[in-house]
Amino acid sequence: MVNRNLIREFDVSEEDWNVAVGELDQDDTSWLDSKYVDVNEIVEGTIIRVDDEMVLVDVGYKSEGTIPRNEWEDESDQPEVGQVIRVLIEDVEDTQSRLDDRGMIVLSKRKAEKIEKWLKVMETVHEGDVVSGEVTRKIKGGLLVDIGVNVFLPASQVDIRRPHDIGEYIGKTIECMVLKIDEARRNIVVSRRSMIEAQRAERKSELLKDLEKGQLRKGVVKNIADFGAFVDLGGIDGLLHITDMSWGRINHPSEMVKIDDELEVMILHIDYEKEKIALGLKQKSTSPWENVGDKYPVNTTVKGTVVNVMSYGAFVKLEDGIEGLVHISEMSWTKRISHPSELVSIDDVIEVVVLRIDEQKQEVSLGMKQTQDNPWEKVADRYPIGGLVKGKVRNLTNYGAFIEIEEGIDGLLHVSDMSWTRKISHPSEVVEKSEEVECKVLSVDQERRRIALGLKQMDEDPWATDIPNRYQQGQLVNGKVTKITNFGVFVGLEDGLEGLLHISELADHKVENPQDVVNVGDDIEVKILRVDSEERKIGLSRKRVEWAEEDEAAAEAAEAESAGREVSGDLKGGIGSESGPLFKAASAEEESVESSDEQVVEQAEETADSVQSED
Fold first, then answer.
1. Alpha carbon of 172 to those of 166, 342, 498: distances in Å?
2. Largest CB tally within 10 Å, which of 44, 45, 163, 305?
């Protein structure tokens, strides 16, 4: 019967096992049946005749025995008359079935030799012993090894890592460990792998006792992976990680080592419990980061080679093991860079300035733009306040437009500086993106890198002379309702110029809601009550359109009397000495509207920095 446990244990299929054992000729294995060994004898006999087919042997029985001539295969050991040999008597002459056709006993020299070899092996070889023998041939599932008798070496047990072709071992003398002796089938299974593992385990145990952190040891590279190389130190493997191979940058361990290379490595760490060893190559030499500050003082200009380009910057090698980062923000004073590859490529040799060094983190910050003059240091000379500049509208925001006056230098044209008279909600009402415009320089802040531009300042302020000259107190004008609030109505007098028709000046009767009297878009006639150039306001009245001068004076006097004061000639509220006040006390909503334009300028300045940096 086949020993199935044996088959499972050594990773050999039942078919392979049968082939391994069954490939032997029946003549080679029939003697293994115990009934022949128990019944037959091995005796000495004398050769009395040799012919082409048979050898006649006298074994001391009544009749001689015969042995086939082909049992002498070795040409150097041929039968001779008178030679004494040991033979197996397959049967005595009273068992006619075992006699040959001439009535002689059938003998076997070959089987006698095999039986004696097997018995000798059984006496000297035990499970766990290490035996030596020559690999005789390759069979399905493994190899046959002659240790005096043929034993089976499964393919999985040839080596720790299964060879590509186990046939390479044929003709070689190898040592193996006896794993199983199956006396029932007279089979022996051996393992070279188990022997190697046992030897390595013994050497590993001894080696671990001798290893110490910081030691230099020689070893052989046995395997290479993406993350490092495994080095055999003579019984135990250590990992040489890719980061411990060189102080410089390497992309793959194969750039530094090859399989079977002999290396001297340093022991970095030992995990006795897990039997893991960390090795290093670069640690054999001094770290280039020692005294890096002396070699590369801050603010000095050095040359380096670009070794990697990322979205946030470029890494520049200053020497093997020392790389610095040029952040994208440190590449140009003026250019807007979307990706560092717009300026540098791998292997470019560039000049950089050392900005910062962190020896503890082993980081160096470098700058490219610092090798050139900062154009912002001279921007005030090139763009004096009051000077005219031309540029393209690069970007629009809610509070203004950024005008590129040269590459990388923008000026902000705020909505409040676009028109003297119009209330502009968005800069797109005045300018378009990519449009070329001419503006006046209002201010330059070199420290904050800001230039304020004005468009309305290109013309004279109409509130200085033009508007006061064209709109006089008491004048009747036509306008269109542009906006209605709870305190009054805004009336457009011309493009961009509006006057305020207070709710008290809408009608002779008291008005609670201005929309009860007028609607947006209505054309109405109004009287100018006041033109205030300083405040840039025009006061209007609808109810006084039909009033005569005496009516105006009476109204003003009545209001003054009710207010407990005398009518003053300095009052600007109407026509004549008795005209009433132009504006009443503003409501909270009016005050917020009046002050909103001043606040938006301050808010825009705070926002401009972040927008410019994003752009």
1. 11, 64, 110
2. 45
